[in-house]
């Protein structure tokens, strides 16, 4: 039996996995985000430990025999967050999260200070990453910065609380802008540029390696065997990929959550910072991955439902699907940049746009434009990634994948087959449990299997000719408006 813990922004999830790949039990604890100022996004780390105790207590109550059989624990979590600790490992301030946007100016400073940053990290400096957050703290909260003796990522703070050990894994550390991603080691140059040294950083291990062991008192409290190991674990997307068995070059997934992610495994470090591609270490040794991220995917649909008075999301999709091909060709275009955009533009000033409206257009036309626009945004990202010709289908996960009609539309726009697999909803928790299994000596071929396929969406005949002209106009509209976006809000 293996236990996976996934620290998300909105909840902490715990999952018990048997060695026949069956999920024995799951527990959830809700978390909330604090936004004390515009662009700020924070959480209290003590809320994470309260959530951890809640899910562990629940699993012990529901599955006591399974908890007594756990052989190892794995960790997954949202990336890029900054937990600042003093010399006694006490938390100095609320954690600054991945979707916090306060450090744009510090990104520019860091890029100027380290001109070869993109070569070292494989990524552009963006406010979501950890290093610019520390520069912001150094400038705006100098007293706290002076007392900072250690910086941990969110899931790694949970590890510290569970074991007393400060450790991170390669995939999560890739999102800090302090890691030399090709060498899988901390970069002294980038640490120095933010006023830090290796002494401030946790020890690094691979995601499938043993990182620490659980404290005896916590094992007793939660009904776990004494001294069981904690695997290195992974950042949420890398752990999710392990959970879906996506560990070989060319394998990948499309995630339709609040944001949209396209993740592709690579056998080497393959940066493309000019197109705002993220190049990170995978959670397994000797492997990397590329990732494109759009900030408003399913959240664009949520906005469309609210803004245009639809009763619910199914009604929104029903209206969008009512358009025939002739009506689709005349529908407005939607730029889904409601919160700016990462890949491929790295444009925090970009905004959502409905272009080409006429008196003849209806709510159904707008609904179609929104879901199509998300597809165009994902296609923009996919075209920046390295996928070999004839690559296997991309797995499709996330809440948006519940619509078969939208899934087919995305396959047509991306011109790539999309596969629905069982267990995709388990996300990082399943991957974390599998990494625990590997740390316990499990064989990769046995552990990292691809779940059974529940459906396959292949591009329809003639759909490339239907969507390509609108894709080109979509890109032209952004290019024309980019100078306007740069001027800021009206």
From TrEMBL:
Q: GO molecular function of the protein, one example? A: ATP binding
Q: Where is the Carbohydrate kinase FGGY C-terminal domain?
A: 253-438
Q: Which EC class is this protein assigned?
A: transferase
UniProt-annotated site: Important for activity, residues: 6
Kindly state a single biological-process term from the GO annotations of this entry: D-xylose metabolic process
Q: Does the keyword tRNA processing apply?
A: no
The catalytic site is made up of 236
The record's listing under Gene3D superfamilies reads:
3.30.420.40
**Reaction(s) catalysed by this chain's protein:** D-xylulose + ATP = D-xylulose 5-phosphate + ADP + H(+)
The family database entries (Pfam families) matched by this protein are listed as: FGGY_C (PF02782), FGGY_N (PF00370)
Which terms are listed as keywords in the entry?
A: ATP-binding, Carbohydrate metabolism, Kinase, Nucleotide-binding, Transferase, Xylose metabolism
Ranges of residues in domain Carbohydrate kinase FGGY N-terminal:
1-243
Q: Where does substrate bind?
A: 79-80
**Function in brief:** Catalyzes the phosphorylation of D-xylulose to D-xylulose 5-phosphate.
Stored NCBIfam families: XylB
Q: What is this protein called?
A: Xylulose kinase
> Which species does this protein come from?
Pseudorhodoferax soli
User: What is the organism lineage in this UniProt record?
Assistant: Bacteria, Pseudomonadati, Pseudomonadota, Betaproteobacteria, Burkholderiales
């Amino acid at each position: 039996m293996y236990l996976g813990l996934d620290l998300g922004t909105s909840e902490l999830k715990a999952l018990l996995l048997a060695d026949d790949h069956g999920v024995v039990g799951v527990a959830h604890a809700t978390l909330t985000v604090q936004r004390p100022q515009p662009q700020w996004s924070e959480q209290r780390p003590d809320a994470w430990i309260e959530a951890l105790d809640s899910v562990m207590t629940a699993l012990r109550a529901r599955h006591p025999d399974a908890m007594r059989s756990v052989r190892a624990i794995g960790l997954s979590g949202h990336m890029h967050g900054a937990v600042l600790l003093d010399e006694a490992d006490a938390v100095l301030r609320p954690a600054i999260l991945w979707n916090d946007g306060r450090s744009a100016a510090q990104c520019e400073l860091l890029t100027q200070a380290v001109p070869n940053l993109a070569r070292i990290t494989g990524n552009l400096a963006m406010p979501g990453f950890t290093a610019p957050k520390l520069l912001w703290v150094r400038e705006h909260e100098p007293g706290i910065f002076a007392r900072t003796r250690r910086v941990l990522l969110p899931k790694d703070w949970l590890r510290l609380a569970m074991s007393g050990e400060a450790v991170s894994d390669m995939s999560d550390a890739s999102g800090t802008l302090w890691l030399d991603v090709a060498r899988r080691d901390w970069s002294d140059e980038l640490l120095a540029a933010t006023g830090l040294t290796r002494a401030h950083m946790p020890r690094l291990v691979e995601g499938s390696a043993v990182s620490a062991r659980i404290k005896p008192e916590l094992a007793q409290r939660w009904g776990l065997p004494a001294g069981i190991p904690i695997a290195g674990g992974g950042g949420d997307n890398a752990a999710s990929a392990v959970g879906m068995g996506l560990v070989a070059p060319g394998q990948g997934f499309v995630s339709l959550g609040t944001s949209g992610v396209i993740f592709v495994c690579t056998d080497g470090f393959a940066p493309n910072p000019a197109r705002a591609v993220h190049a990170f270490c995978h959670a397994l040794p000797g492997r990397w991955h590329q990732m494109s991220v759009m900030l408003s995917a399913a959240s664009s649909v949520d906005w469309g439902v609210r803004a245009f008075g639809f009763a619910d999301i199914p009604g929104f999709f029903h209206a969008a699907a009512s358009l025939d091909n002739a009506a689709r060709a005349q529908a407005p275009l939607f730029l889904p940049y409601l919160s700016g955009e990462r890949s491929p533009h790295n444009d925090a000033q970009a905004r959502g746009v409905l272009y080409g409206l006429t008196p003849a257009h209806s709510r159904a036309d707008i609904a179609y434009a929104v879901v199509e626009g998300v597809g165009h945004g994902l296609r923009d990202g996919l075209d920046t990634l390295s996928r070999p010709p004839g690559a296997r289908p991309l797995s499709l996960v996330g809440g948006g994948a519940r619509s078969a009609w939208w899934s087919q539309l995305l396959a047509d726009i991306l011109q790539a087959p999309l596969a629905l697999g069982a267990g995709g909803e388990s996300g990082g928790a399943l991957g974390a449990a599998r990494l625990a299994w590997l740390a316990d000596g499990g064989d990769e071929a046995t552990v990292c299997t691809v779940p059974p396929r529940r459906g396959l969406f292949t591009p329809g005949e003639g759909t490339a000719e239907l969507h390509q002209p609108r894709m080109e106009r979509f890109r032209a509209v952004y290019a024309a408006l980019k100078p306007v976006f740069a001027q800021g809000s009206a």
